[in-house]
Design goal:
82 residues; alpha+beta; single chain; 4-stranded antiparallel beta sheet; elongated; 39% helix; 4 strands
Length: 82
């Protein structure tokens, strides 16, 4: 299981620490200029199983969902204007 921590109390923190269930630091979710978070691997490196990568991807989708919903709503409303 993946958990996220942040040092910021902002509504949209710029960086989340990505931790595995044993509290091992895997890397960061960093907010990019396009409004989406991306995963940056920890400098410790290592090897990744498909299982671990799926957990990271699922958590990344979860954290990006609110913004992605806003983007989709914006473009859906543009189609109605036509």
């Amino acid at each position: 299981m993946i958990t996220l921590t942040t040092d910021s109390e902002a509504k949209y923190p710029i960086t989340y620490n990505v931790l595995w269930e044993n509290k091992k630091h895997l890397g960061y979710f960093r907010l990019d200029v396009d409004g989406y978070y991306y995963f940056e691997e920890s400098p410790n490196g290592g090897y990744w199983s498909a299982h671990s990568l799926r957990h990271i991807a699922d958590k990344l989708d979860e954290i990006n969902k609110p913004y992605n919903d806003e983007v989709n709503q914006y473009f859906n409303n543009l189609e109605k204007i036509k």
